[in-house]
Amino acid sequence: MIVTLCMGLLYFTANKTMNSMMQESERSHMESMLKGQAGLVEEYVMHQEDLLSAYSKSQSVKALLKDTENKEKFNAAQDYTVKYYEGLENWEGLYIGEWNTHVIAHSNPKVIGVVTREGEGLKALQDEMTSRNGLYDAGIIASPASGKLILSMYCPVFDNDGKTILGYVGGGPFVEGLETLLDELKSEGDTAGYYMINVETGTYIFADDKSLIATEMHDEMLINIMDEIKKGQSTGEVVYQGTDEKYIAAYDYIDEHGWAVVSL
Known about the structure:
Structural class: alpha+beta
Oligomer: single chain
Distance between the termini: 44 Å
Number of helices: 6
């Protein structure tokens, strides 16, 4: 009887320890995945911003903005824009605009001549670029042109004095490229899921269910995470009830962009 009781107690203890070790291993894997995802997002965005910033510094871009009616300067800037765009990976478009957002060169020639902003929208864009004194990353939005998610970026073009604003350049990549990179982080057979959400707008950026992308969040677990972030908790875990048992979701907030990566 005593032997049986001892054996049962030993089994219970060993089983509890094993479960605890498995949970800790799963949590460690989740945190590692989360850090990798958050780091990849920041690296990806920084790289895209650098590409637009470099484009804005071209002398052909500056020359056209200083003499917008000059046909020779237009041809040089347009040719440069098209060639630069062809060297980019999975971008929706690239263009040069006067300060009033009148497009004067574009990777898609059909868009040349369009004015993209007016009134309050124009002033808001100008204020954002001016206040940053450099590149303005408007975040991930649904493109008015394609309906797809893009990283929307704008960068003022300064004269050689580094102070006088001549106009600006704009463009951005389709975000599906970032999603592909995040998926590649998963190891074979990895069942861990993830979300990427916009905390400022309460919408999905990425989700396993593609139909949710760019829609408003109603998931209680994600709303709880969003609430924790707004309280100042930029990283952490929340427990949520699944179909059969309770689970843990870890999250990491990317404050600069207002996005959070959630690993399940």
